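Input record (Table S2, row 420):
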Amino acid sequence: MSVDSPENVSGLRCVECDLEQPFRFPAYRCDCGGNLEVTYDLDRVRQHFVRPDIGELARRGHFVYGSLLPLAVPGEQHFSLLVGASQLVQRPDLAKSCGVGELHLKDDTRLPSASFKDRASSVLLAMAAERNIRQVCTASTGNAGCSMACLCADAGLEAYVFVPASAPAAKIAQLTFYGARVVRVEGTYDDAFDLCWELSNRVGWLNRSTGWNPFTREGKKTVSFEIAQQLEWQAPDVVFVPVGDGNIIAGAYKGFKELAAIGVIDRVPAMVAVQSTGSNAIALALDRVAAGTPVRESVLPVSATTMADSISVDLPRDGVAAVRAVVESGGEAVQVSDDEIRSAIVELAGKAGIFAEPAGATAYAGIRRWVAAHPEAADLRAVCLVTGNGLKDVGAAAGLLRPALEVPPDVEVAARLLGI
Ligand SMILES: Cc1ncc(COP(=O)(O)O)c(C=O)c1O
Ligand SMILES: [Zn+2]
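Output record (pyridoxal-5'-phosphate complex):
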């Protein structure tokens, strides 16, 4: 397989005007301004796709699905760290309390840099490494940059990361220790995005920024391959996804769609986009589509304010692909308040042992609201993506629960105060 044109890939297609174009790298947006997506020669993939066994997935991570990735050779040789292969945790107790038939939590809080974003960064950096590209940049609310910086440290690449002023301290610390050149922009994520774009054009860095780079979706879709495999090659009925830029939901949908297209699963699950009421551009876009606005024109900026910093986005950079994913899969959007997100953090940590950052708990927060409008939920199998680790934003979790008991180093006093 040649690096310039991997044999399994048929080209690139614009998600807005549908124009098919030859594969190239790097690739950013279509001339019409729409984002691009990678297309595959699905007849060829159908012949070559081998269902890996679970042991192989555990050993090699998500590069095991090489026949649906745009790589000349599987990418794991570029990294010592294992990417993907996260646990799918079934919780009958939480399924019952939420009101769904089955609930599986896809725990991406324990990937190398402690977020889902490692999936995307690893595929893009493997493509870069195949071409000897050494300098990469990204705009990031924090996690995309941390994942890129982490894997750049592993593979010996140089990372430039542009974060908004609101990025939590732990994410800045991670970035710094991974050795990235961190640029903290006095402004929003959207300001950081635009600045990173202009500078990368000027100096020629490879730009990983979400949405405008079509290859991040390719990494993100592996979550769906893993979910299908962990459910013994069956699609769940519904998947809950936290949404900011919309790239995760667009990628996860693409993954299920490709598996269905090659006959590995028999249908695509309904994709439910969960947003904060304070950052709800995709939910509003879906309302506009329902009222007759074409998908291409449906995504407009909001003025985002939510404690879930990772999904605090004015203009979703993969918005059209996200809206399409929801509409085509028969899903919908659900909006949750910051208080519901806080409760979800407490419940996931206290009842499942999964400590999530606010955005990471947002999909879980959406389940109950969705169930209230879906009487059939009790018969359905649901998967919920948990996308980022709570240690990245302890400030958000501080104050949610009773504080630690302060005691002197004295057995009698400690026992009395503990009431034991
Ligand atoms: C932990 C976490 N969850 C969810 C998201 C949302 O992903 P997207 O912006 O692709 O919608 C992000 C994005 O930064 C994230 O870091
Ligand atoms: Zn186009």
